[in-house]
Design a protein that fits this description.
two-stranded antiparallel sheet, 2 strands, membrane, mainly alpha
Amino acid sequence: MDKSLLFSIFACVLVSIAVAGNLLIVIAVWKKRFLRSTTNYLLVNVAFSDLVSLCFLPLMLTQRYVKFNEGVVADMLCKFLISFNIPLTASFAAICTLVVLSVERYHAIVKPMKTGFRLREDTVKYAIGSCWLCAGLATLPLYIYGKYSNIDQRNLCITNLFDLFPLIYILHVSFFFVAVPFITISFCYFKIVHEVYFKNKVGPKNLAAQQETLNKRKLVKLSLSITITFVICFFPVTIAVILKSIDPRHANRSLVKYTSVLYFLESLCNPFLYAYQSTNFRQAFKAILKL
């Protein structure tokens, strides 16, 4: 069997499982009132971002097998359907959401008295909307300058943006959506882990305080594991896509292909992380699936 076809079949199977898992997360928070919290709403937005990316993977594969005539229609397809643009927008929204999540957890656990910085159920929607707005603005040039082109008998979605000011755009995106989030998230979770695990050497005296500490630790583990998984899976494909966009003629297509698999594996991992680390999510999943 042709390797490309085998890869496409594997990708479709992967997408099907990941879509089902992330839909389960969204449905669980929607149907189960005990899961409705600011933290879980943010985690649902990460799951929704994964769903957006997953739904566009089969469309992206058409680049490999379908040849379009260069023109307005093909350019529009590249801008909005068969390129990495929308999955990248969704990924940036997920990154912003993970930053908001880490900052929210930081103020909830490390600075509990500063309630002005805490998200509430009626305000978390504005934080989520802001994440998508920032992601959309950051990737807007890709939609404006994206086009379809046949280069050396290869059908490619390219971005003319990189002919105009490649280094400026890449440096800005890398700074605001890689460096700043990484530093912010690292700082917040370092402080959170120190607060929850190391600051109070003497354990709580009463059962209620012990349970509260245990719940905090579980939530920290879940949030941190989701974040670490995303970073490990997202950064390699980001680098590969940027390199491809700069020089599509000499881009290593295998590098993009295999890092893309790693990227979509993150979407597959998340539902299992929720089920494994959160008793509430596990109970909700069982109830929905009637297990």
